[in-house]
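Reply to dn_fold:

You asked what the input looked like. This is it:
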Amino acid sequence: MLNGQCSTFIIQHSAFRIKKITPMIILSTAPILPIFNQVLADYHKFDDVDHPCENPYERLTIEWYLYNKSWIDTVQWHLEDLIRDPNIDPVKALALKRRIDKSNQDRTDIVEMIDGYFVLLFQKVEPLPNATLNTESPAWAIDRLSILQLKIYHMKAEVERTDVSEEHKAKCEEKLRVLQEQNTDLCTAIDQLMECYKTGEKVMKVYKQMKMYNDPALNPVLYGQK
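and this is what came back:
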């Protein structure tokens, strides 16, 4: 069982680099969704991929990481829109592609930071004899939840458009219904996963992502130029 409250957020494992006191205990999606929705509201006040992230939470707390993670996702969503302009200047397209690549790496890094929180949170739980592994870590499931909030937000915007046909709106309404059902199911699945970690029914185990194409020592195009 989970032993007491996790008030100290200190990750010593080589895969993580976090050290911060935080009062928040996350054992479900309930405290996560408001942060993601806050990001969507904050970003769309400006709707500008170059607007700086003004994170309202204390640095290095789990809330701060969740806000930053959602901000990265939101900016990247709009970068992906921009790069699909069929008339985009090739030089600008390359710059956007590089920016999206950097965003993907930032996203991976911050997901690992969030997983560090859960490593600490569940580190004293004794696994049951028949404990099982999960196909993805809590933070990567939360990553999907963040992207899903973006899909829901923008599908709602399509439903509310006044410059489209009723057929378009009807199709978007059906897609929105499916997305909302998916959101309910994903939240339920994440909550169930947290409970399994809490009770020792699943073993908390994560791996650091090893992206080879970003590493000049592992990407043959990069190390071949030396």
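Residues 59 and 114 are 13 Å apart (CA to CA).
Hope that clears it up.
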